[in-house]
Structure formats: structure tokens, C-alpha cells
Amino acid sequence: MTTETNPGSCCGSHSCGSDTAVDVQGVGVTTVYKVSGMTCGHCEGAVSQEITALEGVTAVKAVADTGEVTVTSAAPLDEEAVRAAVDEAGYDLVGRA
């Protein structure tokens, strides 16, 4: 699941954790990250798209208002891989939320 992007929205130039839960239904691992620089739906979509491309990721939900990105994956992700994906989108991974 990715967030919808708003094609009419542009955030201009980009200046661009703590809890991991295992899903008891066997869906995978859910981790919440803090990302700085997201301001709109376009930002959410860019971050979601890059993280979704990581191997094992099954769902991503980015929320610009809180700066939180919830990632569900088959197994725990390497934080440096997540950091690189967020960087590729033009934002900064602060860490786990």
C-alpha cells in the first residue's frame, strides 16, 4: 500500500527509530521511521516509492504531517538501505520513531 500523490502539489526543493513490531498474523515486521522534509502528498509518494522498491517491503505509509513512515516487510530491513532509499527520494531519515 502506498499513499496517493497529489499531481497538482509541488513542495519545491527538498532539504532533504525506536519501535519494531512483528505482526502476529505472520504478515511481517512493521517499523516506523521519522523522515524530515516531507511537506505534502508528493513528498509522501516519493518516499513511499523509493522504500517500496527495497527487497522484502510489502507496504509503506508515509504521513507528511507527522514525518512518520510506517514500513511493513517480510523481515527486518537494514536501516542503511532505508536511509539510502529516503535519501534517493530527496529527504533525510532521522531514525526510528
Structural features, described:
- By secondary structure, the chain is an alpha+beta fold.
- It contains two helices and five strands.
- Strands 1, 2, 3, 4 and 5 form a five-stranded antiparallel sheet that branches.
- A hairpin with a 4-residue loop joins strand 3 and strand 4 (68-73).
- It is globular, with a radius of gyration of 13 Å.
Structural class: alpha+beta
H-E string: EEHEEHE
How far apart the termini lie comes to 20 Å
Got a strand count? 5
Portion of residues in beta strands equals 25-35%
Given as residue ranges, the uncertain stretches (5+ residues, pLDDT < 50) are 1-10, 12-24
Shape: globular
Helical stretch count?
2
Determine the fraction of residues in helical runs and give it as a percent range.
10-25%
Major sheet description: 5 strands, antiparallel
Q: What is the mean predicted local confidence, pLDDT?
A: 82
Output the radius of gyration: 13 Å
